[in-house]
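User: My collaborator and I are trying to settle a disagreement about how two of our proteins should look. Neither of us wants to argue from intuition anymore, so we agreed to look at predicted structures for both before our next call. Could you fold the first one, then the second, and keep them clearly separated?

Assistant: That sounds like a sensible way to settle it. I'll keep them separate. The first protein:
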Amino acid sequence: MSEPSGPVALATRPSAPRGRLRWPRPLAAVAAVALAGALAACGGSSGTSPTSSGPLVFADVAPFSGPDAALGPTYLVSCEGTANAINQAGGILGHKVVCKTADTRGEPADAVPAVGNLFATTKNLELIIGCTSDEAASVVPVINQHKTVMFCMTGQSEFDHVKYPYFYRLVPPDLAESYAMTVIAKQLGYKRIALAFGNDIGSQTFVQPAIQAIAKAGMKLVANVTLDLNATTYRTEAATIVAAHPDAIMTEALGNADPTLFAEIKQLNGGKMIPIIGTSAAISPAFFSASAKAVGAKVFAANFHADNLVTATSGPAYDAFTKALLAVKGKVSGAQTGDFTTYFTATGAVHLYDGMNLAALAMVAAHSTDVAKWRPWIVTIGDGVPGAVVVHSFAQGVAALKAGKKIRYIGPGGPTVFDAYHDSPGIFQIDTYSPAGQVIVSGNISAAQLRSVEP
């Protein structure tokens, strides 16, 4: 079979990180309370059973408000584009696909009732996407109890070794991204590193692995600040960073936090920007637009790098994906009006598109929308079996299945290799921006490089 061209062909899949994090007691407690509360709200744990008629619902469970509000619309663009492509190809066993949203606000306390309401009010709820690190520890047990398949964007490492049968993930744990950011700093020759991460759950999971990786790489941690995502100024934190004279800042603080910090650092640093190394969450139209406005597009582009998961940049999988997203350009509520092509490399857009296609093809292969029958096909179609033909889109997969062929789906996110916990971590590339906001792939990160900074 042919591998996707471009960066995918240049990198190798990293080995699973050896370091594992225990489930923090607060998260475990939140999950237990969430499970009890949501089940009470929903009236049981049997989930929804699709009827013989009506559309199938793919639900985007993610922040649409709050500091991480850019995540939900990114996933929704992917959902609407994928649903449209599936429907254009005839739908799933006679069913059309529609997308629905549940705003978690990025907070466990808001996520639990949002998911409870979703189950209570939604007929034919077939698949859930999203569930970010902000709320995953709370909602994954609930969704799993309802026997509903989910493709989540959480990077929390507890999902490496706590098995939920209905949980699937096509992205690596956050600690792997911390290692990738450290590799970028090492490649660029930086010696003195500052950390600036948001006070939300999803951002804080990067901090301790980053500290350990920086030490392993022989670099010096000179500042470590936490940004309150509800604040309107970070002048104190900016002053701390500037006074420490770092060569670079490793960061994830979504919403207006990072752009505000960048502007204040520039002001306090004699008009000069300190180089930034971000996570894959920084690859979005919203993040570029806000950062460019804060410090100037040329200045930001010249001083920014981020780790990102390798995605195809050409070939049949990329063509099908971009066509699907472009078909809904301007039609998705809350989507950014900046450079729409940024969605083509946004981790959430790419890997949730692949997850939705895997689920849809699994239903077709199983000749059923009964989750008990189609769920086992996800790994079969993703990882492939002997004699399987490679397909790169839902339409191509359906045609092959109707012809009596076995299939392996390889989308723009590359091939899957699911482990016992339904994790299939991707491989990393290094992204930058042009002054116009276009994403530029500037390099790759090998498995050996990740291992070199892994504690």
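The second protein, kept apart from the first:
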Amino acid sequence: MKLLPLLLLTTSLIAADPAATVTSTPGLVAFWDFVKREPDGRRRFTAHVPAGARTDYPLDAGNYIKDFWGAGREATYADFPLLGRGPFGNAIRIVKETDADFRPFLFVPRSRLHDTPLDIKGAGKSVSVVVWAVRESGNHALAGIWHEGTDLHDASPAIIAKVERGQRQYALFAGLNKPGSACGHVSENGASSFLNKYALHKSNSLGISPVVPADSPAAVLDASWQCFAMTFDHEKDELTSWLNGVAGDRWLDNPKNDGLIKSACHAYMQGHYAALPGKQDGEDASFPKDQYYNPPEGQPLSVKVLRESADERVELREHRYTKIEVTLRGGKEVARDLVALRLNPWWYPHGIYTPKDAQSGGPFTIGRVIHSGRSVGFTGWIGGVAVFDRALGTGELARLAKIGQQVAAP
């Protein structure tokens, strides 16, 4: 079959049955389209799951401020207005809440997901999360297992009734340090990275999603769906973020001056110092070895001479994940500086955090995550959430991204 007819056929199939496009993608674990519900009883949203799955992950409504601070009211499904339209026929609204004691989300409790296929964890595991959304505001969580913990007391505006350590595994955010980008996040320990109090293994797509008021006319919303995605490929040790099927290269210059990523820069230098004989200036012998951050640096992709004299040469060496400035004397390296760190893809050489039991693991949440800061987070519409137990390819992500572009005008 020629390429053009094949593309037309693919587009036709996506338009005819977009949910089937998702469910037929290999590796699917769960897909909430906010159309499928329990047939009776509470009528909660449920996920499309593979044949033979023992659960379809019904979503509860919760207010984590009430659960952890003992303040605020209970959340119900009424707190998530429905659009009645969207990439798959419906969408939920994450509202810009004004009550500081009300942060509702939809969630699968840990007791119902522990050790199920949704509980992606451990070494040798890959994961992809795809979310179709219209972003009104915010840069925080869209979906995933990412209980940030309530033990960061300095960030808490009130006394915490229930203090818990972080229970992070994997999640997709609406940008974090690059608001509006797709931002994938993974954790090897559930808690912090590089001695910073926050988890810092994350990537940011080059593309940025627009800001669209959630109460825009239907035609505007229909034209505004964005496909956010993250993939972690354990074989490549790469965490990549994608917006509308495109990842894009993103670098952070001068990471040592960044408020958060400077911790990764410090971890890079500590790992470098530890590999050299003897004690180095700036070396901290107490820095934990499992927190070093040293992406592979073999043959440079490019070398640029920045300056040179009779006895000294300074080179800028670009590697896949790092750009380093190296000072040479007599052909021997005498100093180096990490001048840029790649944010997309991000090198991640670990497995995904494995909670020891159901009591020490976090829930799967949509719309928000549990965290000490209690910020409003992402607001807007979410029209679909899908999780896969492998790293999707570029073509697959492009095909899923087309779904949001097929929403019919009213």
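Some points you might bring to the call about the second protein. The longest strand covers residues 332-344. The chain has two domains: 3-247+346-406, 255-343.
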